């Protein structure tokens, strides 16, 4: 039985992404979603979520000891995020490449953060950093019934092994 994150390295590999509230405020939702969509990845789950501080703390549990943790959970719970699951070949690693470095001033132009942000505390987007965190974060933000395994009619024009 495949997990919520699909098959690691397979065409059904899935990652969790969240458009943070700064990007929602700035009107960057479609700009950010469009980059994943145009790349050829498939959106299989989508909803707006206004996280509580407790929920934001769960999402960022591995950063609890960091000095910015308090401000981070306050920021994340200050308004709704756009929560998404994206599916496709190599999507976990590629989403991180498309996102860019954590600090937008160190992100290359052409990446989401490199093009759209200047501050680490307002870096517009989250993406799972590995298969294990993708699994964990998809399960935290979505129930299985909210994830849709729909078929694209133009799949042959997006993916081929030769
Ligand atoms: N963050 C911050 N200050 C820092 C480092 C991180 O405010 O010095 C925030 C930032 O929003 C970042 C999030 O904490 O996206 C999670 O940090 P992580 O190192 O996991 O970066 P990411 O995986 O988002 O690139
Ligand atoms: Mg991270």
UniProtKB/TrEMBL annotation:
The active site is at 126 (pros-phosphohistidine intermediate). It comes from the Eukaryota. ATP binds at residues 20, 68, 96, 102, 113, 123. GO terms for molecular function: nucleoside diphosphate kinase activity. It is an enzyme of class 2 (transferase). Keywords: Kinase, Transferase. GO terms for biological process: CTP biosynthetic process; GTP biosynthetic process; UTP biosynthetic process. Residues 12-149 form the Nucleoside diphosphate kinase-like domain. Its cofactor is Mg(2+). Its EC number is 2.7.4.6. Belongs to the NDK family. This is nucleoside-diphosphate kinase. It comes from Sphaeroforma arctica JP610. The chain holds residues 65 to 226 of 226 of the full protein.
């Amino acid at each position: 039985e495949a997990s919520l994150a699909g098959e690691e390295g397979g065409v059904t590999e899935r990652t969790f992404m969240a458009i943070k509230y700064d990007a929602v405020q700035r009107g960057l939702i479609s700009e950010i979603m469009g980059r994943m969509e145009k790349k050829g990845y498939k959106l299989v789950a989508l909803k707006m979520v206004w996280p509580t501080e407790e929920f934001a703390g769960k999402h960022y549990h591995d950063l609890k000891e960091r000095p910015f943790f308090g401000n981070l959970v306050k920021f994340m719970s200050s308004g709704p995020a756009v929560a998404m699951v994206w599916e496709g070949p190599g999507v976990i690693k590629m989403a991180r490449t498309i996102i860019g470095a954590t600090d937008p001033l160190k992100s290359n132009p052409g990446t989401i953060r490199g093009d759209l942000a200047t501050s680490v505390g307002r870096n517009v987007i989250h993406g799972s950093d590995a298969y294990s965190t993708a699994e964990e974060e998809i399960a935290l933000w979505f129930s299985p019934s909210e994830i849709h395994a729909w078929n694209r009619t133009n799949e042959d024009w997006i993916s081929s092994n030769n």
